[in-house]
Amino acid sequence: MTDPITCPECEGRKGIQLGDLFLACQFCGGLGRVGGSNEPAERGGQPPPEPPPAWAHKVWDDAWIASAISCRLCLGSGKISHVDEVVGTLVTVLCRCADS
After folding, report:
1. Over the stretch 90-99, which tens digit does the pLDDT of each residue have?
2. Beta-carbon-side half-sphere exposure of residue 33 (alpha carbons within 13 Å)
3. Close Cβ partners of 24 (under 8 Å, ≥ 6 residues apart)
4. Strand extents, DSSP E, the chain
5. Which of 19, 24, 52, 85 is the most buried (most CB within 10 A)?
6. 3-state DSSP call for residue 79?
7. pLDDT tens per residue, range 14-60
8. What's the half-sphere exposure (Cβ side, CA atoms, 13 Å) at 95?
9. Cα distance between residue 74 and residue 98, in whole Å
């Protein structure tokens, strides 16, 4: 364990602001500092839990979001893309909402 220092990845900014969206720094977890009880190397070696798939995310509980975006799978674009890392290709297919 080390003494707390400013995060070398975000330089203490806690993340990055993209318009109205704030993305927390993955290295420090959005705290702006590492060390002490927030030491990335000592987090138990367990990866964080997998996020839910996009169509099951808690944002869909918000009535405005659910009404503004017509499809949870393609987010209204009509297409679904998937990166196949094994083959190294990008596959894009029409969403089932585009068929209707």
Report:
1. 999 999 887 7
2. 8
3. 14, 15, 30
4. 5-6, 15-18, 21-24, 33-34, 79-84, 89-94
5. 24
6. strand
7. 888 888 888 888 888 888 888 776 666 665 566 667 888 877 888 88
8. 15
9. 9
Pairing relationship of beta strands 33-34 and 5-6 according to DSSP bridges: antiparallel
- Structure-token match 């190294």, residue found: 88
71 has pLDDT over 90: no
Taking phi first (over 0 means left), then psi (-120 to 50 degrees means alpha), and beta for anything else, what does residue 12 get?
left
Exposure letters 38-57 (e unless 16+ CB within 10 A, then b): beeeeeeeeeeeeeeeeeee
